[in-house]
Amino acid sequence: GIFTIPNLSKQTIYRDSEQQGLDEQITIHFSHVVAENTPKGRTALYFKELVEEKSGGQIHVELYPNGMLYNDENEITALQHNDVQMIAPTYSKISNDVPEWGVLDLPFLFENETDVTRVLSSEVGDTLRQALEKQGIHGLGFWQNGFKQMIAKDAPVQTLADFKSKRMRTMASNVLTMQAKLLGATPQAVSFDEVNSVISKEAIDVQENTLSNIYSKSFYKEEPYITRSNHGILGYGVLMNQRFWDSLSTESKGIITVSMQEASAWNEKIARKMNVDDEQRMKAYGTHFYTLSTHEKARWKRTLQPLYHEFQQKDYRDILDAIERQLH
Ligand code: LMR
Hints:
single chain, 6-stranded mixed beta sheet, about 325 residues
């Protein structure tokens, strides 16, 4: 890219005994892949404001949106090397290193956002956060974007037959790759920052994403058919380098934790609102919207059922059971 990557790890933390209040001055470099005007982009900005205000400017958060520093392929490694201290990848992307997180990609697992929040604030959330530790990652929390919809280039996806011989962009994730295959499409894992380029090369026909991502990256201009399918959720693990977290004082940890709680509560509201507002904007532009029929939805569910069996056969049965206990 056009940005040179600064060697951040050496300058990230130093102590200044002259300072009042917090006795450490810290810079947290926080990289993410979406635009600023999205649920994740806005929540990251809000988190930055809260942390800086509560620490009296002693803790500084530098944001790098739009994949300007790192993309889907290298941001987790960058975090593990402490080249940045925070990232917020989707559950799907985390699942490559921490397979338990793949459970959140199971199609039709959740019916509404409230259920997602309830599940993630239960023991399920604790289990998922603990699973990060073996990768040297500290889980600060969860942010939501919303439900994924299907978006297509030449014709709307309305039945399973419409996926036949279509190339479908997915995030790199085992569950999502298998989902695309079960639907009848050919999966193509593409890093988020490359999606517009593969669309313009006509290398994909269909993708799944949230309305706010579709709007903020202008996918709707080339792929004008959106099917409201709500077949899966898209949300984020907010992650910090474990050694960096461990190096912080109790007071700094407290400020970050409280700011994270406030930012996460705000995130839920803003995420819903942005997805609704962006739908209106795309409608005004002339994007075509369809809704998956009840009958067709039942067929998609049946077709995708093998994903649940697959997940249960692995060692993650407990986590799926724990989610189901929260939902029923
Ligand atoms: C995607 O790759 O489609 C999303 O993960 C982008 C994001 O971070 O919301």
